[in-house]
């Protein structure tokens, strides 16, 4: 029996196609909320020129724009490094749409290599979503940490970060992509989860520390 033509592994290709579909579903889910809020607010604005409604439209539009910019860096990073202040601003805009979450940006240097920026920002999104009741999101040179009450990491996301085999769900698709891309760049992600704290640390493949 002949192997895959042109070096294409059909099994891998199928997995990549399925993962791309899950990521698309995840994006549609994340964008549906802000778009729906804008649509509803515009309908209300026709009858009542309320400053609060205008604020809702503005905040929803900003949140949607921030998500688009952030996902572009995470899912399709350029070869050029990302300015430190730009990476921070991208994440800060996204975090600002999450109530009661504060950002502590500790990344040093003027620039961040594109793959490293994609990994850190992707892990930051994953960690931030575990802060179901707000808290603090800290991002350093090689780690992301979420601290907050009632911190809850979805089981599918936990398994994706830990490298467990099994079907990937839309909720875990982003984590799966971030972990896979980090592996391609010779990195691995170690996870430590205790009550109220989730820590994700990025190691080079040669590191043995956990």
From TrEMBL:
InterPro entries: ChpT_C, HATPase_C_sf. Residues 85-177 form the Histidine phosphotransferase ChpT C-terminal domain. It holds the Pfam family HPTransfase. This is Histidine phosphotransferase ChpT C-terminal domain-containing protein. The lineage of its organism: Bacteria, Pseudomonadati, Pseudomonadota, Alphaproteobacteria, Sphingomonadales.
């Amino acid at each position: 029996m002949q192997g895959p033509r042109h070096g294409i592994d059909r099994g891998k290709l199928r997995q990549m196609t399925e993962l791309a579909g899950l990521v698309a579903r995840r994006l549609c889910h994340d964008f549906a909320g802000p778009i729906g809020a804008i649509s509803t607010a515009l309908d209300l604005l026709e009858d009542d020129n309320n400053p609060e409604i205008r604020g809702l439209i503005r905040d929803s539009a900003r949140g949607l724009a921030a998500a688009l910019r952030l996902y572009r860096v995470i899912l399709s990073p350029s070869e050029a490094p990302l300015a430190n202040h730009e990476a921070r601003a991208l994440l800060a805009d996204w975090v600002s749409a999450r109530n009661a979450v504060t950002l502590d940006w500790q990344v040093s240097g003027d620039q961040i290599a594109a793959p490293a920026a994609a990994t850190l920002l992707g892990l930051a999104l994953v960690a931030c979503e575990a802060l179901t009741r707000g808290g603090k999101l800290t991002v350093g040179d090689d780690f992301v940490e979420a601290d907050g009450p009632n911190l809850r990491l979805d089981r599918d996301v936990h398994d994706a970060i830990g490298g467990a085999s099994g079907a990937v769900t839309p909720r875990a698709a982003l984590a799966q992509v971030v972990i896979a891309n980090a592996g391609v760049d010779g990195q691995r992600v170690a996870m430590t989860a205790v009550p109220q704290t989730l820590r994700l640390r990025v190691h080079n493949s040669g590191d043995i520390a956990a």
